[in-house]
Amino acid sequence: MDDSGDGGAQALAPLLAAFDAAADEGHFTRAAQRLGVPQSSLSRRIKTMEQMLGVALFQPVGRGVTLTPQGRELYEHTRDLVRALDDAVRRVRADADPDSGLVRFGFPLTLGPVSIPTLLAQFHTRAPKIRLHLVQAHGEALAEQVRDGRLDLAVMIPPPADLPTVPLGRQRIDLHVARTHPLATRAHVDLAELADAAFIANPPSYQLRSLLDTWCAAAGFTPRVLFEITEFETLRELVALGLGVALLPAAEIPHPDLAVVPIDGERDREIGLVSGDHGPTLAVARLRDFLIAHTARISL
Fold first, then answer.
1. PROSITE patterns, per this entry (predicted)?
2. What is the DSSP string of 115-169?
3. Domains of the chain
């Protein structure tokens, strides 16, 4: 393909695709991998677009790039157009061959090592030509990507109220302590007993942190959070080292130095399969139906 272009629609489409991918990824190499083109080609397309517009669209930051003010303005006006065109092309291709296509699927950080990979492996044996683009993130990040069309489906805990959802089950939240902790051998614990405990928790934007704050407030105290961290395995390791306690779902791979103690009362949250408002391709519908039919066989 000639990267120079003359500003016509035929030449502009690959330039917009390169711009959109780079803006979304914040990194030219990852954007090129996403589009399946050499990084040199993506860089030329970005440069061609900047020359056509007479402004710089990106500026370096660390090892990646960020949008300039002019680039941000262009991205705000073009991202929905690029998403709509991408969805249209994917739907047409998927309808032509229902056994192939691309599904962009997201799932939460607490369902990574076992349950979701097991389901996806089973699905792959049934539909080996369907490609899966996987995203693992916390709840609000997944919801935003479903809303703006970057994801077709996502398992979310809990699902947002504004998106179509199919319930898949519930996830119990328990107290996690080091095996040397005084509560480690208890059969259950009342949350009020933790009023003086040091907690390790996610940042306030995470739904598990909201549950912690809400449940503790109902028990009459504000949790004393000493460590905030986004990564769950590191969080569990900090608890295992005796640096604090945490309210978490059970780990899919048990930690030998952690004890899990049930908390009195209803302490769980809904697991749902969320889809966007845009029309699904046949490949998306196939994965959606598979997950609905098979999640009961996996411990979620």
1. HTH_LYSR (PS50931)
2. HHHHHHHHHHHH-TTEEEEEEE--HHHHHHHHHTTS-SEEEESSPPTTS-EEEEE
3. 9-92 (1.10.10.10), 98-168+270-297 (3.40.190.10), 170-268 (3.40.190.10)
